[in-house]
Amino acid sequence: MEFSIKLGSPEKQRSGCVVAGVFEGGELSDAALILDKAAKNTLSGIIARGDMSGKIASTLLLHNVPNILSERVLLVGLGKRNEFAARQYLDSIRAAMRALFATGAKDAVLYLADLPMAGRDSAWCISQTVLAAFESVYRFDHLKSKAEKNKKASCKIQFGLLSGKSTAHQDVALKQAAAIGQGMKLTKDLGNLPGNICTPSYLAQQAVALAKAHKSLKVTVLEEKDMQKLGMGSLLSVTRGSDEPAKLITLEYRGADKKQTPIVLVGKGVTFDSGGISLKPGAEMDEMKYDMCGAASVLGTLQAIAEIGLKLNVVGIIPTCENMPSGSATKPGDIVTSMSGQTIEILNTDAEGRLILCDALTFAAKFEPTTVIDIATLTGACVIALGHVASGLYSNQDTLAQELLAAGEQTYDRAWHMPLWEEYQPQLDSNFADIQNIGGRAGGSITAACFLSRFTKDYRWAHLDIAGTAWKSGKEKGATGRPVPLLTQYLINRVQADN
Ligand code: BES
Ligand code: MN
Ligand code: ZN
Predict the structure, then answer these.
(1) How many independent structural domains does the chain possess?
(2) Which of 17, 188, 195, 329 is close enough to 289 for a disulfide, judged by CB 3.0 to 4.6 Å?
(3) Are 227 and 122 found together in one domain?
(4) Binning pLDDT at 50, 70 and 90, where does residue 3 land?
(5) 74, 125: one domain
(6) Residue nearest to ligand 1 atom 3, measured at CA
(7) Which has the closest alpha carbon to 268: 292, 290, 251?
(8) Torsion sign, CA atoms 319, 325, 326, 332
(9) What backbone torsions phi and psi does residue 358 show, to the nearest 5 degrees?
């Protein structure tokens, strides 16, 4: 897909399709008004006949509209003008993409970026449209024996602006959004791959390939014997039952001076979570191939910032293994020693994410980070709390939480700030070790975060529980690419904050 910004009037565009909005009640947007005038009231006539109500996300495709140089005109319903805001924009743009890609148009000019909207500018509209286009063309069918050719993927999309000049701000937004879109694609592809293909070794190979493609990235892969030497008894306890070897992947992105301390991203990379000896029930267990989506989002984000050439130092750390039952698997009641020295009583082998993350978080300190953010499909309880809309956000520092929330709002990849209060900590008290790995049913997402907080006392830290947002179930089953937009935007904002 190619994207660009184009100035000029909609009726004069020679393209496969020109796209313009109509508000509910038939009120034409500025671009639609211009088209209507050039076409001698063809559009208003159609609206008067009742064929386009302007209802949100409705579309109407027209051919051979008089005096319009494009082959097609696509009208998109925007809903009520006084209710038009971010969500309405996103609904209409997604509908527009669906309708556009159902046509044979090889290129299109979209006049939807300068619709007046409270709190969001045209640069925002442009980035969101780029992401919607990526979303709309995404397919994961290369494992089918007969994959169809994806013609939509070669469509050229132009953002038509009626007035003035395109600004540097808009150009930057477009480039960054395209990089985020590519990063999300990588994250989705890795997430959607089955566990028999996307193993810990496969993730390590992907990291090596990413570092090969970008000079600014350096990769290191630690093996189980290396982790043994580092004292990662907690991480290694999870992989004991598996035949696939665990890996600890580190990707260092150098975009700024060597002296600048890095931001570290840690992603949970359980390539299949069967639960281990605390075996999960069979229903929907296939979805536990998605238990490496945190890791995939770290890779996607690093690819995006490398593509952008962000002037910042970022380190990605990916602890990756399988969680399987076997004769050698860790058993409930086993006690292990983490890299931090704290001992852990494993009461449920299905609470494995925190066991691999705690050692990776201790390992992260070696990079003397300003900030560490971990991303994990950590708890089913988070899905119960926040559903599939918001990621759960925890932090030991409120400023960091605010910055991440803001980045999520900005990209519409939203998170919700959850409590990390001391009062929850006693749920992790163990009779036999320093800490136990489960805190009971009450506040399950919170106590998981509390567990991690015991290993992150030396730096600014945040945790994103993406169990509800990393993939969709049911008919639409598939990875979402979240929270690559939130993370990338956060990092982009950090550069601007430092300058
Ligand atoms: N990977 C799962 C969390 C998960 C479950 C994400 C369902 C999305 C959907 C995690 O390793 C896990 O199994 N967590 C347990 C923790 C419990 C044993 C304390 C859970 O949430 O049930
Ligand atoms: Mn589990
Ligand atoms: Zn898991």
Answers:
(1) 2
(2) 195
(3) no
(4) very high
(5) yes
(6) 379
(7) 292
(8) positive
(9) -60, -40
Give the residue among 93, 102, 92, 154 at the shortest CA–CA distance from 127. 93
Reported pTM: 0.98
Separation of 372 CA from ligand 1 center, angstroms? 22
Catalytically active residues, by annotation: 280, 354
Residue 174 lies in a domain: no
CA–CA dist 463, 393 (Å, integer): 6
Kindly state whether residue 33 falls inside one of the protein's structural domains: yes
- Helices 484-498 and 293-308, axial angle in degrees (round to 10): 40
Is there a single domain that holds both residue 42 and residue 141? yes
Ligand closest to 320 (CA) is 3
51 annotated among ligand-binding-site residues? no
Domain assignment present for 166: no
User: Is the pLDDT score of 498 beyond 90?
Assistant: no
350 known ligand binder: yes
Using omega within 30 degrees of 0 as the cis cutoff, is the peptide bond preceding 419 cis? no
Contact 380, 469 (CB under 8 A): no
Assess whether the C-beta atom of 238 lies below 6 angstroms from ligand 1: no
Residue type, 100: L
Residue 423 marked ligand-binding? no
pLDDT digits (tens, 9 = 90+) for 15-43: 999 999 999 999 999 999 999 999 999 99
CA of 291 to the centre of ligand 3 (A): 5
Mutate to test the pocket of ligand 1, among 350, 469, 472 (most ligand atoms within 8 A of CB): 350
User: Which of 129, 161, 193 represents a domain boundary (last residue)?
Assistant: 161
Same domain, 276 and 390: yes
Co-location of 100 and 217 in the same domain: no
Task: Tell me the pLDDT tens digit for each residue of 470-493.
Answer: 999 999 999 999 999 999 999 999
- Compute the distance from residue 269 Cα to the ligand 1 centre, in Å: 13
What pLDDT is attached to residue 152? 83
Enclosing domain of residue 85: 2-161
351 vs 358: CA distance, rounded Å? 12
The residue contributing the CA closest to ligand 1 atom 7 is 380
Domain assignment present for 430 = yes
Same domain, 153 and 42: yes
CATH number of the domain at 239, please. Answer: 3.40.630.10
